[in-house]
Design brief:
The chain is α+β, with helices and mostly antiparallel strands. It contains eleven helices and nine strands. Helix 3 packs across helix 4. 12% of the residues are buried.
Length: 337
């Protein structure tokens, strides 16, 4: 469904992507893992044409988005073809924005109408169906900031049976929302809370992402023998062991026959990557008609950053400058968020 071949991307002297190649099959869930600044977001932005590459090729559903000739020059498809290809892809940004003047349902239907050309009724039905799927139908008419509606999980499985343990609730949520095999062991007393999370991640490749994704039986949920073995071992952990043993001892007792790779913990730092340039590019993607309707209704376009609290406001003059100027590619974030 998506194929990337030998992708190269740099920002000035900083090389962000160096020969990245991978495939993602239809229905497959793939996680890209790496430290802050390693190019994860840039890779996704290149796939959806929010960034351009210096060399390589990208195919979407067997149709080329960009290719490289024998002389190393990149050639993108015409704009109309790019819009058609990228219109079938979606991206949730690291730090996403919901339009504050639109309800939950309206936020879900806007892109369907503007980008995919669906009717308002069809888009609304699809949006309501997705809300029902994750148990959020009761919040369909609420507005962002009115009341938190993210992170709500159902307490019953697909057959309506009550899930008795918190770990079972979260495992079921991960299976439904992320389509990932997940095993979670939790324990707590009056002084300590501890947990062990096991998830099956994509096949490890050589170099960056040089692994060919497959849809064989062993890669389907619940069918991977290696994951099932490790899950059984993790599930054998008792509450007493989880609360009283250190991580090193637990890993050694459970997985002494497995090859383990330990990563040093990262210290998070507060650094928001939002900027007026990024918000302007987002507003430009709405189109003049939608922005003019917001200005007519509210007098200005206001966008707030949920991460750092920064507020961005655009009057009619500011909005006009957005559509007459040249889009500015936002800089890659340099700090862990």
């Amino acid at each position: 469904m998506i194929r990337a071949i030998d992708l190269h991307k740099r920002f000035g002297e900083l090389i962000v992507l160096r020969g990245v190649s991978f495939e993602v099959a239809r229905g497959e869930v793939v996680a890209v893992i790496g430290p802050s600044g390693s190019g994860k977001s840039t890779l996704l932005r290149c796939l959806i044409h929010l960034e351009t590459i210096e060399r390589g090729a990208i195919e979407i559903q067997g149709r080329p988005l960009v290719s490289t000739d024998a002389h190393g020059h990149c050639h993108y498809q015409p704009d109309a073809e790019i819009r058609q290809l990228c219109g079938r892809m979606g991206m949730v940004f690291q730090h996403f924005e919901l339009f504050p003047h639109l309800s939950v349902t309206e936020n879900l239907t806007l892109a369907q109408v503007k980008v995919l050309g669906r009717s308002l009724d069809d888009a609304r039905q699809r949006g309501l169906k997705m809300l029902d799927r994750v148990g959020l139908s009761a919040h369909k008419d609420k507005f962002p900031g009115q009341q938190p509606y993210q992170g709500v999980v159902p307490l019953f499985d697909d057959h309506g049976h009550k899930l008795e343990k918190l770990s079972s609730v979260l495992e079921h949520y991960m299976l439904q929302s992320e389509q990932l095999d997940t095993t979670l062991v939790l324990a707590a007393n009056d002084t300590t809370a501890a947990g062990l999370l096991i998830q099956r991640l994509p096949i490890k490749g050589e170099g960056n992402l040089a692994a060919k994704a497959t849809m064989e039986d062993e890669d389907e949920i619940g069918r991977n023998e290696d994951y099932n073995r490790i899950s059984i071992l993790a599930s054998s952990l008792t509450s007493d062991e989880l609360l009283n043993l250190d991580a090193e001892t637990i890993l050694r007792r459970l997985f002494w026959e497995e090859k383990l790779v330990r990563f040093e913990p990262l210290i998070p730092s507060f650094a928001c990557s939002c900027s007026r340039e990024r918000v302007s590019n987002m507003i430009r993607s709405l189109g003049t008609e939608e922005v003019e309707s917001i200005l007519a209704e509210r007098g200005e376009v206001e966008v707030g950053c949920d991460f750092c609290g920064e507020q961005y406001r655009y009057d009619a003059v500011d909005a006009a400058q957005i559509f007459t100027g040249t889009p500015t590619p936002p800089p890659a974030p340099s700090s862990l968020q």
